[in-house]
Amino acid sequence: MVPPQLRVLGGSAAIILGGFVTINVVSAVTMSVVRTVTERKRKKISLPCMVCKGKGFYICKLCRGNATIQWSPLYDPVAINPCVCPTCEGNRIQRCLNCLGKGYS
Hints:
This protein is α+β, with helices and mostly antiparallel strands. The protein has two domains: 1-45; 48-104, Chaperone, DNAj Protein, Chain A (Ribbon). Helix content is 40%, strand content 13%. The chain has a two-stranded antiparallel sheet with strand order 1-4. The protein has a two-stranded antiparallel ribbon with strand order 2-3. The longest helix is centred in the N-terminal third of the chain and has 42 residues, at 4-45.
């Protein structure tokens, strides 16, 4: 048998905790809806990015689309090793830094 004081305390704690969880879920859903609506409006009225021509990506400028760079840790290299490009990580394209990959500015 649970004492009545503990039952009241447990019920109150459950109501308060449930209220916090409900407010958290509602605010998360509201923020995602607001973000989506804002992005749609922005995309509708904005011009395409001039750097990537509205694609959101362009060929990597460091490796020039080769996926590897010639690198040596020494100042006067004895041997130059091909390494994976650190900018595009071997994908040959990189996200546009002007529009951050959205395609519009």
